[in-house]
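# step 3/5: fold
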Amino acid sequence: MHDPAHDHNRLLDKTEAAKFLHISTRTLDGYMRQRRIPFYKLGRGRNAVVRFKQADLEAILATYRVEAVSR
């Protein structure tokens, strides 16, 4: 059976992305402002929504784990 939680192409909203990365949404906002994390803005103006590709977040976590282990 297909498990959507393991769908690498899944788009996450800000709350889901923060939970996935084990950070607060405020920290996630900071990473977005600093362009430290890839995100997709869908729509324009006040109606725009932000989404994060799960595969991108998995890659960030994998990089972090490698850096933490090699220290």
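# step 4/5: annotate
The chain has one domain: 10-70.
# step 5/5: archive (pending)
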